[in-house]
Specification:
heterodimer, A: 194 residues, mainly alpha, Arp2/3 complex 21 kDa subunit ARPC3, 8 helices, globular, B: 319 residues, 6-stranded antiparallel barrel, disordered C terminus
């Protein structure tokens, strides 16, 4: 799975991702969307897709993005395909980041969350402009996008902890993760073995 | 082995992007009664009861968050409302006298059969879902066609106009709010009687734009804007006249046609219970709605106006 393929994905991981996605979409549209923070609506669904990509790789990230996007579009009776397209790109990109760089800094989820929120908000806007907007567009839109990204970024770290807590037990043992754990736990460090 | 994995990964990405684009194009091009829209309505029917249950279960959480926000604004709102009540009490006395004269004149000139909000049957519904996307100002409600809700029915709450029905399934419906980019409403400034079209300003959920007012019209900040009871073309929703939409916040004199900014009266951030104004089968309001729906774009009809009345009379309805 570290190479981004879907070949050896455990069923338990798929079930956990599916359960988390469905639960989040219900909570998002039922509660979170109705509580504005600093005048903007918090959207955790792009963060979920990005974090799945960051933990599970590009293919699973893209598939999760497509599925979550489709679910959102179906449940909110929006133009089908818009959210799927944006979320597929976010999931794939986050997965490729893991596969190519495997970033381990503590602030990585923060940056990935911010980038995912920005991609989602800008992506929606670009697609809507391409589809044609009948109403006048306010400069306030820019402020809404900037504030939306800022609020999502603030929430990225606690949300990352939640996603990791749910998915981590089902993740297969990746050699890279094992190596990192060895360094951090000390007991299996190459230094102690030497 | 590595090449195979890379090829598979890329194939999945291309497949998903292509699928999204196909869905988007097909959905965008098809009519509201098309296959994908039907699938979406079917899905809405299935998930509506679940959404309703989840909404009830999660209501305490939402109320808790809402309580913090309400508490922060309560004091300033209270002071503002006290001033407003004092002013309105004085106005009410004058208005009641005028209203009595007005009703007498309506009867005298046989104009008392006009359609108003009272001609509709309100169906109370709970908001069960809200879009987080700034481009879609939509909510989902737990009332659908099984309770008489139909496409384009106006949706109101205690404060004023909320939006209109844009998709209806048997047990649920989608409401496009007045701040949604696809909604436009013919409106009148209550004090001066000048009419224009209220449109949202995409990205600004607290502001609407009343456009196409005559350049020499008099509009003042604080004036109330209400539905005009007319439409500007076929396919639009015919709102009954006199439903409050918002209050003029500022005036833009720069454009050749005067435009004013309108602050919506309904608190669209915190919608819990709404009412759908449904029409009774065979009623005058419903017949007029059908006439309006069949109009070609650019035609104008009114629920209380001459064009609308004439159209109904010609179909044998009358009032």
């Amino acid at each position: 799975m570290g190479d981004g393929g879907l070949g050896e994905v455990p069923i338990s991981l798929i079930l956990r991702i599916a359960a988390l996605s469905v639960a989040l979409v219900f909570v998002q549209i039922g509660v979170i969307s109705e509580v504005p923070v600093f005048g903007v609506t918090v959207d955790l669904s792009p963060l979920l897709v990005a974090f799945v990509g960051l933990m599970c790789g590009s293919t699973l990230g893209a598939v999760t993005g497509f599925a979550v996007g489709l679910l959102v579009d179906l449940m909110l009776v929006q133009t089908l395909g818009v959210t799927s397209l944006v979320f597929t790109v976010i999931g794939y990109w986050a997965g490729r980041l893991r596969e190519l760089r495997d970033p381990q800094a503590a602030l990585t989820p923060l940056l990935v969350g911010g980038a995912a929120a920005a991609t989602a908000l800008v992506g929606y806007s670009v697609i809507e402009f391409l589809l044609g907007v009948d109403a006048p567009v306010s400069f306030e839109l820019l402020r809404q996008i900037v504030l939306g990204v800022a609020v999502d970024t603030l929430l990225a770290l606690p949300f990352w902890l939640l996603v990791r807590r749910v998915l981590d037990p089902a993740l297969p043992d990746d050699p890279r993760r094992r190596r990192r754990r060895a360094y951090t736990t000390g007991g299996l460090s190459p230094l102690s073995r030497a | 082995m590595y090449d195979k994995t890379v090829r598979r990964r890329r194939a999945v990405l291309v497949l998903l992007v292509a699928l999204s684009l196909i869905l988007l194009t097909a959905y965008f091009r098809e009519a509201p009664g098309g296959g994908l829209h039907s699938v979406q309505r079917g899905f809405l029917t299935v998930v509506s009861p679940i959404q309703d249950g989840a909404n009830k279960a999660l209501k305490p959480v939402r109320d808790l968050f809402g309580w913090f926000g309400d508490t922060l604004h309560a004091r300033s709102q209270r002071d503002q409302l006290r001033k407003q009540v004092d002013r309105i009490q004085a106005e009410l006395i004058v208005k009641q006298t005028n209203e009595r004269s007005y009703q007498e004149l309506l009867k005298l000139f046989h104009l008392d059969n006009q359609i108003s909000a009272a001609s509709y049957t309100p169906v109370t519904a709970t908001v069960v879902a809200k879009s987080p996307n700034i481009w879609y100002s939509t909510v989902t409600i737990d009332a659908g066609t099984s309770r008489g809700v139909h496409l384009n029915d106006p949706v109101v709450n205690g404060e004023g106009l909320v939006g209109k029905i844009t998709q209806a399934a048997s047990d649920g419906a989608q409401v496009s709010l007045i701040t949604d980019s696809e909604v436009g409403i013919s409106a009148t400034v209550n004090t001066s009687g000048v009419s224009g079209i209220v449109q949202p300003k995409v990205g600004d959920p607290n502001d609407l734009l009343l456009q196409y007012l005559p350049a020499n019209s008099t509009v003042n900040p604080g004036d109330y804007v209400v539905t005009a009871g007319t439409v500007t073309g076929g396919g639009e929703s015919l709102f009954p006249p006199g439903i409050p939409i918002g209050q003029v916040s500022s005036i833009d004199e720069s454009s050749p046609y005067k435009a004013v900014n309108v602050h919506p009266l309904a608190n669209l951030h915190n919608l819990d219970v709404v009412q759908v104004l449904t029409t009774v089968q065979g009623s005058k309001a419903q017949r007029l709605g059908h006439v309006v729906a069949s109009l070609p774009p650019g035609s104008q009809a009114g629920s209380g106006g001459v064009a609308g009345e004439g159209a109904v009379a010609s179909t044998g309805g009358g009032g």
